[in-house]
Amino acid sequence: MTSEVLARALNTNPVVVRRLMGGLREHGYVHSEKGHGGGWTLSCQLDQVTLRDIYEALDAPRLFAIGNRSEETECLVEEVVNHAMSSVLTDVKAQFLARFGQITLAALHADFHQKLAERFSGGLT
């Protein structure tokens, strides 16, 4: 698929898609061809790649919108809150990454096709 087609499906700008896909290409998960009939194609074994692999290939984007505003603070209240939040966010991130490491692209592919079949067989509205 082209960046433009993917961008329409994701409701974003093709430049955003090209930037993301470039990171995936660097890790060998996709490749691209220019010109007529070109676009992005998967180039990996779906059962060998996990969501964690993809997350890491995209330079491990920030998971949480909340977090410590500053690591070094003179405010005792902020220090205590930062310590509590850091501990929780570290635990949640570890759980998140562990679970992402269990989900393969093959599992997502199978789930997609199952839901697609259900939708077109009248199982979903």
Automatic annotation (TrEMBL):
A single Pfam family, by name?
Rrf2
InterPro entries documented for this protein: Tscrpt_reg_Rrf2 (IPR000944), WH-like_DNA-bd_sf (IPR036388), WH_DNA-bd_sf (IPR036390)
The residue stretches assigned to a coiled coil in this entry are none
**GO cellular-component term (any):** cytosol
Report the SUPFAM superfamilies cross-referenced here: Winged helix' DNA-binding domain
Q: Name one GO molecular function term.
A: DNA-binding transcription factor activity
Q: Under what name is this protein listed? A: Rrf2 family transcriptional regulator
- Organism lineage string: Bacteria, Pseudomonadati, Pseudomonadota, Alphaproteobacteria, Acetobacterales
